[in-house]
């Protein structure tokens, strides 16, 4: 007989998983106390990087059933959710999502649903990239400076370049100018590139 597990996640300690547990029970899944995995972790963390979820993976066996209330419990985005479901399917674990009518995401209908969700996510990502590029191009055409502000002005950068040429160390200059070593090394690289 298949064992049923529930994975319930909230993002902050002020939130509770009680509603998720009740929703799973109300949908007809019988989950025993120790098989309810509760975790407080941000949804931006990939499923395979969550301690509670990894603990759950160690308990699951082929033929088991995992129930979640919503897809976002299984990953940080559609691609992560898809990878998580595929990983579980490889081990023979069925994944039911109540948000999608309790469909088993490892079944043919569930795989189709996951494919549609992944396609929509990819479309949204492409639109975001397109909007970002459009905004950057507009800002560039308006003459706006893009990227992070420089930590050192033009005059200070010239002075640093001269002092580097005289043999002063990157670390000493970074301390003196109150900037990172990487900023000083970028100046050194740009000088080397212009000479080469």
Q: What this model shows, in words?
A:
By secondary structure, this protein is an alpha/beta fold. It has two domains: 4-117, 3-Layer(aba) Sandwich (Rossmann fold), CATH 3.40.50; 154-195. Helices cover 51% and strands 11% of the residues. The chain has a five-stranded mixed beta sheet with strand order 2-1-3-4-5, with helices on both faces. Strand 3 (65-68), helix 3 (78-90) and strand 4 (94-97) form a beta-alpha-beta unit. Helix 5 (154-165) packs across helix 7. The radius of gyration is 26 Å and the shape is elongated. The N and C termini lie far apart (71 Å). The model has no long low-confidence stretch (mean pLDDT 89).
Q: What's this model, at a glance?
A:
The chain is an alpha/beta fold. The chain has helices at 18-26, 51-59, 78-90, 108-141, 154-165, 170-177, 181-195; strands spanning 4-10, 36-40, 65-68, 94-97, 103-104.
Give structural attributes.
single chain; 196 residues; alpha/beta; Rossmann fold; 2 domains; elongated
CATH H level of the largest domain: which superfamily?
Answer: Resolvase, N-terminal catalytic domain
Rg calc? 26 Å
Question: Approximately how much helix is present in the residues?
Answer: 40-55%
Distance between the termini: 71 Å
Q: Beta-strand percentage?
A: 5-15%
Q: What is the CATH topology of the largest domain?
A: Rossmann fold
- Our count of domains comes out at 2
CATH architectural designation of the largest domain: 3-Layer(aba) Sandwich
- What's the tally of helices? 7
Uncertain runs: none
* Structural shape: elongated
Tally of strands? 5
SS content category: alpha/beta
Biggest sheet descriptor: 5 strands, mixed
Task: Report the mean per-residue pLDDT as an integer.
Answer: 89
CATH hierarchy, class of the largest domain: Alpha Beta
Strand order of the largest sheet: 2-1-3-4-5
- Element-by-element helix/strand order: EHEHEHEEHHHH
């Amino acid at each position: 007989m298949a064992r049923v597990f529930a994975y319930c996640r909230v993002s902050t300690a002020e939130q509770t998983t009680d509603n998720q547990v009740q929703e799973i029970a109300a949908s007809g899944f019988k989950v025993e106390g120790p098989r309810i995995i509760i975790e407080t972790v941000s949804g931006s963390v990939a499923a395979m990087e969550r301690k509670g979820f990894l603990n759950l993976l160690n308990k699951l066996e082929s033929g088991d059933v995992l129930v979640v209330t919503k897809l976002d419990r299984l990953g940080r985005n559609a691609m992560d959710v898809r990878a998580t479901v595929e990983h579980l399917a490889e081990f023979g674990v069925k994944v039911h999502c109540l948000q999608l009518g309790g469909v088993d995401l490892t079944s043919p209908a569930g795989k189709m649903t996951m494919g549609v969700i992944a396609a929509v996510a990819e479309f949204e990502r492409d639109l975001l990239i397109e909007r970002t590029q459009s905004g950057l191009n507009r800002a560039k055409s308006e003459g706006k400076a893009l990227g992070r502000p420089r930590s050192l002005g033009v005059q200070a950068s010239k002075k640093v370049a001269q002092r580097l040429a005289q043999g002063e160390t990157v670390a000493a200059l970074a301390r003196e100018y109150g900037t990172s070593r990487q900023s000083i090394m970028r100046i050194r690289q740009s000088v080397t590139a212009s000479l080469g």
